[in-house]
Structures are given as structure tokens and as C-alpha cells.
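Researcher: Next sequence.
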Amino acid sequence: MTGSTTDDGTVQVSSDQGPSAFEPRPTRMGRRRSVELWWGRDPRPTLHTLARTLGAFTLSRLVVAMALGSVLVVDQGLATHHFTGPWPAPPRASLFLQALGSWDGSWYLLIAGHGYFPPAAQFPIAPGSAFGFFPVWPLLLRGLSAVSGLTPIVVGVALAFAFGAAASVAIWYLVRHLCDESVADRAVVLWVFFPGAVVLSMVYSEALAILLCAVCLLALLKQQWLVAGLSAGVATGVHPEALVLVACCLWAAGVAVYRDRDWWSVVAPVLSVAGVVAYFSYLYSATGDVLRWYHIERAQWGGTGFTHDTVTVLRQSVSHPHDLEAVVPALGLLFAVAGLYLMARWRPPVIIWIYTVGILLSAFDSNMVGARPRVLLTAFPLIVAVARRVRPAAFGMVAAASGFLLATMTFLLFSLVLVAP
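Model: Next structure:
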């Protein structure tokens, strides 16, 4: 049995199954925004906590760097072609940086350098494919590159590291709020060493998107509606999977209005759509098609392919176990199912369920994505559910195995076009 104190001062006793799906019960907090209100009954952050969390993140980045370095040493596959592939050619830089700017990162760099209408020669697939990528991340790369004088690829790698580190801290505090410090420690270690965490070192938008998602979820649990709405509003302009935050905000606000007549909570869902509304408005003004992103997704990036990723991929992984493009998503699907089972045992608040299931459904809807490692990284409550069940005595072995898989994923990702992150 464990005990926890909710924001309204009551003590909640829960079994190993965790809190009720409707906990913590919202209370009316009005518009107060003080630091005391934000932290509530949770202990304040300490330097020791930050050092422990950031140390784990930094160590995981060293694992990625060493695995990538081994690819450069053996000098095979993508390394011999300056990491070119079925994506825009990465800009001129060292091989190390070109690797970190490859795959989807090259699309963000293309948009940062040329906008959504680059020269036709820049496109490896078809004109307009860049519209499949949301604008906040490439805008950030372009803006900071202009201010700092650094190239967008250097800015992207630096920001990915910074936002990844901040995301690990935000996830720690979210898990500590939901569970306790020991679970938060284990969850962060498993998250930073998860195979999909390789994208936290690349010019991908996941680091920023996950940071904003974690902040939004924690703010909703603490009834900090303005913070929740602002973080969700930016996130929906960073990555399409962050659109699930709109549903999270709607649920939390609906409960707050129904139970406490807290109409200020409505600010969260209203602000949460700011990013996607801004992007779709731009698409309409630039192309005359407000659903341009959706049409590009269907035509170029896999569209709606739930059957492909649930049936075909599983069948392919059994009949062709050497095909990593099928085996990795199949293993990811099994991990997702196991994680959902452990979440059912945990019974976290409803908004955690909405977020996790929403992320999985949006990914499974694309036959170019599916249950890939970076999707499971974004659906981090699945990893938290695993961390809750791992015994302290076995945690070292689990963390070491996860680190080995992260190194393996990094090596495969940058050596051959065998499996996408």
C-alpha cells in the first residue's frame, strides 16, 4: 500500500494497482499562478534530483555517440554515401552531423533552409511532400540559426539535446506526481535508454514535442489551465501526434466544469488548437487546400494504413524474420500491448489513458510509421507502466538490456537503410 496527498490536501491510499482512473480529483483553483500553487504538495526540485536525471540522459547520449562513432569507423553503408537515402540530401557538414541530420531530420533542415516551396531538385519523392512536417520545429531552427550564425544542422542537434534533457526532467516530475520518486527514477532511465531515444540526438521534433506533452499533462493534473493550454498550443504546431493533447484538455476541462464549475479551465482546450489552426490556415493561404497536410499524408506518407501495420506487418515478421522493417514494428506492437496491460494494472488518471491510446492510434493509422520505437518513446506512459513493475533487484539488468538495444538501434539506423527509428 502507498499513500499520496492530492492537491486539495486529502490523503489518498492506493494499492499496487495505482490511483483511480479519475484521480486526482480536480478542485477549483481559479486563476492563481504562484509557484506554491504549481508545486502544491509535491516536494520542490533539488539539484540532486536534476543531476541524477540529467546524468542519466547524458550517459544515454554517450551511448548513441559511441554507436554512431562505430558506424563511422567501419565506414560502410550510409556512411560511404554521406548518409543520403530516400530523403533530402543533408547539408554539408561532418559525417557525424550529417548522420544526425538524416532521415526525417533532413526534411526539417530542408524546410528550415528553403521553406515549404524549395527547388524541385531538392525533392526525392514528389513536390509538396514537405507539407507532411509541421512548422514550429523548422521555424525554430531557421530563427536561431539566423540569430546565432550557426548552421541549422548544428542548431538542430544542440536543441534536440537541450529539449531531450528538459523532457527527461519534465517526465520525472510527472511520474513523481503520479507515483513516487523511485518509480520516477526508474522510468526516466528506461525512457532515455529506450531504443527510440536515438531521435533525441537527431534533428527530429520529438524532443520538443515530448517536452511540451509532459508539461501539458502535468499542468492538467495540477489544474494549471493556462500553462496546459499554452504548452499544448505550441505542441500542436510541432508534431501531428501532439493533437491528442486537445482531447486531453477537453476531458480535463469538462471534468472541472462539471464538478467544480471552473469555467477558467476552458482556456486549456481553446489554446490547445492554436498550433494546428495556425498551420492549416497557412496551408489554405498558400495552397488553397486547408486539408493539404492530410492529403499529402495519404498520398506520400502512408495515409490510413491500420490494416497494414497490424496484420500485414505481423505476418511479414513471422514469414521473413530477417526483415527488420517488419520485425521492429511487430516487436513494438507487442511492447505496446504489454504496456497497455500494465497500465490497466496501474490505473493512471484518464488523461494519461487518452494521451497514450491517442498516440498509438495516430501512429497505427500510418503504414509508414506504426509501432516504431520513436512512437513508443512519445507514448512514454507505457514505459512508466513497465518501470512500476520492474523490481529494484532486476532493474540494473533491464536498464543494461535497454541500453544495448539503444546502441543496436543506433548502429542499424546509421549503417544501412534497414529500419526507421
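Model: Residues 195 and 409 are 6 Å apart (CA to CA). The longest strand covers residues 2-5.
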